[in-house]
């Protein structure tokens, strides 16, 4: 019978507890990788939803996600007339926090022109917006239901459609409404300043947008269209890859570095703990190993006992940890994306760590004197 199996069966309770503790640690490592994947995916959801190849923003800014960008609403018609543009849409973005049904609700509001780029890519329930005002499409994470009415600013909106996995880079759920409604919500003046403009007979300009998203013909160079759009001094243009890189570097870079560093530290801690566990288990088997040596067991048999136990502990701990995280991933406040390739990579790292950690136990086992089997 395999010596490693016999030893595990003899100390089954301790082995199971050790594997369970290791599974929690490896589960945390896997969850950190999943949180990192979710963070990057969340950051890119809004950029990829319009399926655009060109972003036109205020000149000198990196908006609309990295910093503020305001351009006239008429810029959309000007961009749409450029050679190579097949469709263009004006969009606005803003964050809102309100109380609804007695709970705090933080939303990321996207304004778009129905029928043009900028709206939700897929509606999973309900219908698109068909009225010019006071209808919205909400992500399911808002907790809003179809037909529910919600107060935003001075108006009451009706939820007519639902989407899934539409969040901003901060993990806040997204709601879509018409551009006219968001302009009213974002740029309309209230209170004393509104009364000041009214007293002087001045109508404040509300036809302002944050960006124009445009689709470019596959037969035309996107870079050439971007250069043409940038000739207007008050505009600058970014291609889709440039916008994604800019967003990742400016918005999620620090969080990404922090999660990456934390994951590396957890892996290092896991390696140390596995090494200590194997070393302690080897010390506990000093008399048994001495007895094996006394009856003439070769070194490879003793090495096999230690390495096989280390691998069994690592594989079982990883499998338990992966199963645990997969079962609770949906309950995390932010999205946790578990990809098979990440699991396979971590599994490979765990096996490598187990093999390296076995060296300490092997060194101890091979130095045990067979005479210790005869000691008291």
Automatic annotation (TrEMBL):
Its main location: membrane. It is found in: Cell membrane. It comes from the Bacteria. Coiled coil: none annotated. GO terms for cellular component: plasma membrane. This is ABC3 transporter permease protein domain-containing protein. The chain crosses the membrane at residues 12-36, 259-281, 302-325, 345-366. Residues 261-370 form the ABC3 transporter permease C-terminal domain. The keyword NADP does not apply. InterPro entries: ABC-4/HrtB_transporter, ABC3_permease_C, MacB_PCD. It is a multi-pass membrane protein. Keywords: Cell membrane, Membrane, Transmembrane, Transmembrane helix, Transport. Pfam families: FtsX, MacB_PCD. Residues 16-229 form the MacB-like periplasmic core domain.
């Amino acid at each position: 019978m395999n010596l490693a199996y016999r030893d595990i069966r003899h100390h089954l309770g301790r082995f199971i507890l050790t594997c369970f503790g290791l599974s929690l640690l490896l589960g945390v490592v896997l969850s950190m990788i999943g949180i990192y994947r979710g963070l990057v995916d969340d950051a890119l959801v809004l950029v990829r939803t319009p399926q655009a190849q060109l972003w036109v923003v205020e000149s000198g800014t990196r908006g609309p996600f990295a910093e503020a960008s305001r351009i006239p609403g008429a810029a959309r018609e000007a961009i749409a007339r450029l050679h190579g543009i097949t469709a263009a849409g004006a969009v606005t973005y803003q964050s809102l926090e309100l109380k609804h049904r007695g709970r705090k609700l933080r939303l990321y509001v996207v304004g778009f022109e129905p029928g043009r780029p900028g709206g939700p890519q897929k509606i999973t329930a309900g219908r698109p917006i068909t009225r010019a005002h006071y209808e919205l499409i909400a992500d399911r994470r808002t907790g809003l239901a179809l037909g529910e009415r919600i107060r935003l600013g001075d108006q009451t909106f009706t939820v007519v459609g639902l989407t899934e996995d539409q969040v901003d880079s901060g993990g806040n759920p997204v709601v879509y409404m018409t551009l006219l409604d968001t302009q009213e919500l974002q740029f309309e003046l209230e209170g004393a300043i509104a009364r000041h403009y009214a007293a002087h007979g001045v109508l404040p300009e509300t036809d302002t947008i944050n960006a124009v998203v445009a689709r470019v013909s596959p037969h035309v160079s996107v870079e050439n269209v971007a250069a043409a759009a940038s000739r207007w001094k008050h505009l600058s243009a970014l291609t889709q890859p440039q916008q994604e890189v800019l967003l990742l570097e400016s918005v999620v870079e620090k969080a990404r570095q922090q999660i990456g560093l934390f994951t590396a530290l957890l892996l290092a801690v896991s390696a140390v703990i596995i090494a200590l566990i194997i070393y302690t288990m080897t010390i506990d088997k000093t008399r048994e190993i001495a007895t094996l040596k006394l009856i003439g067991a070769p070194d490879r048999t003793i090495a096999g006992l230690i390495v096989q136990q280390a691998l069994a502990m690592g594989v079982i701990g990883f499998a338990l940890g992966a199963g645990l995280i997969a079962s609770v991933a949906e309950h995390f406040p932010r999205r946790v994306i578990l990809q098979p390739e990440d699991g396979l990579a971590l599994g490979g790292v765990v096996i490598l760590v187990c093999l390296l950690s076995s060296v300490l136990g092997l060194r101890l086992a091979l130095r045990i004197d067979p005479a210790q089997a005869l000691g008291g």
